[in-house]
């Protein structure tokens, strides 16, 4: 199973440093969710783990080896990434999209094998997309389209799935639909899933391991019960809140009260 960790990682864009001295290990076989305010570095860290952003300094290890020194094809057999707002050619069907996920396992001129066909059949079934296999992505609802992209990522046959805000732009029903699918894939097939979420209560409900990022650093990490506190909400999101138990699943749940007095005073000083 894929192992992913960062050692003294520095990340940034041009001359702006976003993350410094990051040490982080992703628990195997669990759902890890990054939370934090806008611009704190969550997506930057996820992009670096997927090798979409090269570190300024430090090392990301995949299965104990520097991910930057591993061939692209070998990395793609171990790790799949679903970025924000993925785009596909117009008219592409769900099944055609899924076959793109098989490219790391094929040669340049290789034809689809029986193994490829069986994998596509499986991912369509697991994501509930069999009935939509021949339908164009353009004709799908937001939730269906996101499930199709997850099916493509699954088709890579990797142990690690990285997803950057997979519920963005979806209504609440489709958000839960996608998160329940990911939870099932984790529980039934031991996929290690790492994602960025904005909704704090959804993060607390679906995470095994929460990583709270503030100003490019790990503010706190652990189980939702360990991380999800009124102090964390105030320090990271500048909100006063009340933390209660979710009446359905028992996970911690944030009831926002309002912008904290300290944050208001700081804002007034900047005006």
Automatic annotation (TrEMBL):
Gene3D superfamilies: P-loop containing nucleotide triphosphate hydrolases. InterPro entries: AAA+_ATPase, ABC_transporter-like_ATP-bd, ABC_transporter-like_CS, P-loop_NTPase, Siderophore_ABC-ATPase. It is a peripheral membrane protein. Keywords: ATP-binding, Cell membrane, Ion transport, Iron, Iron transport, Membrane, Nucleotide-binding, Transport. It is found in: Cell membrane. Its main location: membrane. Residues 4-240 form the ABC transporter domain. PROSITE patterns: ABC_TRANSPORTER_1 (PS00211), ABC_TRANSPORTER_2 (PS50893). One of its GO terms (molecular function) is ATP binding. This is ABC transporter ATP-binding protein.
